[in-house]
Amino acid sequence: MDRFSVNEIAENLGIHPKAAKTRLRRAGVQPVAYVGPTALYSLDAIEMIREVRGRGRPKKGKRAE
Question: Which superkingdom, per the lineage (predicted)?
Answer without folding.
Answer: Bacteria
